[in-house]
Amino acid sequence: MSGAVKTEHEYQRWLGFRNMPEELLDDLYSAPDIEDRFRCPLEFGTGGLRGVIGAGLNRMNIYTVAQATRGLCAYILAQGGPKSCAVAYDSRKNSLLFAQTCAQILADKGVRVYMFPEPLPTPMLSYAVRRLGCSAGVVITASHNPANYNGYKVYGPDGGQVTDAAAAAIYKAMQAYELLTNPDGDFEGSRKDGTISYVGRDIMEAYYNDVLSLCVNRPRVPIKVAYSALHGTGFVPVSEMMKMLGNIELFSVPEQQEPDASFHTCKSPNPEDPCAMALAIDKMLEHGCDLCIATDPDGDRAGVGIPDGSGGTRLLTGNEAGVLQLEYLCIARKQADALHKSPILLKTIVTTPMADEIAACHGIQVENLLTGFKYIGERITALAAAGEAERFLFAFEESCGYLSGDFVRDKDAVIASMLICEMASWYKQQGKTLIEALDGLYLKYGYYKSELLSHDFKGSEGIAITGRMLNGLRSKRNDFMGRPIERYIDYLNDETGLPKSNVVGLRLQDGGHVVARPSGTEPKLKLYLTVHADTREKSQAAMDSLLELCRAWLADI
């Protein structure tokens, strides 16, 4: 049977399925993209499922959620021990429906479910899994993706995203179940018999207290902070933490305060996107705030903006906000005699090497891990298992994800928001803005500049092209577009000590760094570029040159 015939056969099978929700049937009848919807099942990877909402194999709907949950149930029951699962959801379209579908199937199979009663950040799910002693956790979210996306992310008993091995086992278990099957169980019935219960306020209060315990210096100098939840889950926990921290006057962006599945005020609810930060910036300038913060829909990433002193604004990159927090934590904990004698910084291979310089200056061990916070979570779990959790100081990645403390095993924008405000007040007490603090770091450690180049492709053909391009890099280890390569790392084939990954890293003789990797959720090739110089002007010139080189390489596709 040809691909086109298979696609048409599957499409007709879905059209003829009994008891399909009217919304999905209407979606099928009006769909212009049948080939894309039915060309292959939605992939279940280490991040679980993520895709466009709608009817079809390659879409997020109650059937893909149900099949994944049945596989997860089989995996949980095969592990022995406690048979319970925490379930959370964000503010996206169908998030509550998918969370209830997940919960009722788990309960029907005999797994005790602890479900959050309202949309709350992903890191609170990570916290609840460990606090409640669950054997797994699920959060329905597509993080910072556009409004037409949703996802299904699975966590292990350590509160971290499931390992590669666990994800493979869950996926294998899923294959035993027919996709086009109505969800088992009854949500309201399981609520009445207690198999599904709502997570209590005590868990949320415990989380807030643990976050507050990370504070080194309670703000002594008042600061003003503009804040946007970007229509997501962050407003309640972030505003709660600001009250507990004290000396912070919070100005929320009202248009983006309430959850809204359409994210109608921003095209992309991603705090890395200047457009998503626009209203927070306006609020900051309106009230003369010291900074603004925006958190993404599931509350695990935080963007930061600062007045530039001349009526404008400077948006910090994820790398810049990360190195500021790192330097602050090193200094503040030393002053408070609270820095472990052998602390560890965890970061990804695409995160700025400026962090390595700062860590070396303060005697901090650095571990560079593969892209994805799940690897950071795994490492913290390993430290805890060895009785060394207190060694963990800080972790961050260039895409605005940060973590301190070991009670959450994923990036946490609530913790980051607290640390950033604490840090801003600490510098203000010394008569410095965060911009002046950052410029001081550049003077001390050199001018590091990073950029991300992304090249989008379409469908399965795009994924194949991405693979060919990376293999092309592997075939030429001596030079990149005519520039000599000083160091070459193939994370798929070299002995790096890290899990095998389809990533290639280059360090050019002129000092430029390039890391190439495919996106984990889209047909996209990402190039992470870094340069380093002793002046801002030289750093910018080096980056301009490297960007030109990489764009020329991409143009040869």
Blueprint of the fold:
Elements: H1 3-15, H2 22-30, H3 34-38, E1 49-52, H4 62-79, E2 84-89, H5 95-108, E3 112-115, H6 122-131, E4 136-140, E5 149-155, H7 164-174, H8 187-193, E6 196-198, H9 201-212, E7 223-228, H10 235-245, E8 248-252, H11 274-287, E9 291-295, E10 302-307, E11 313-316, H12 318-335, E12 344-348, H13 354-362, E13 365-369, H14 373-385, E14 392-397, E15 401-403, H15 413-429, H16 434-445, E16 447-456, H17 459-475, E17 479-480, E18 483-490, E19 504-508, E20 513-518, E21 524-533, H18 536-555
Parallel strand pairs: 2-3, 2-4, 3-6, 7-8, 7-9, 12-13, 12-14
Antiparallel strand pairs: 1-5, 4-5, 9-10, 10-11, 14-15, 16-21, 17-18, 18-19, 19-20, 20-21
Helix pairs in contact: 4-5, 4-7, 10-15, 12-13, 12-16
Key descriptive features of the protein:
six-stranded mixed beta sheet; alpha/beta; 21 strands; 41% helix; six-stranded antiparallel beta sheet; 557 residues; 18 helices
Distance, first to last CA: 32 Å
| Class by alpha and beta content | alpha/beta
Give the overall shape.
globular
Count of strand segments: 21
Strand content: 15-25%
Strand order of the largest sheet: 1-5-4-2-3-6
List the uncertain runs: none
Tally of separate helices = 18
Largest sheet: 6 strands, mixed
Q: For the residues shown, what is the average pLDDT?
A: 94
| Cα radius of gyration in angstroms | 24 Å
Helix-residue proportion = 40-55%
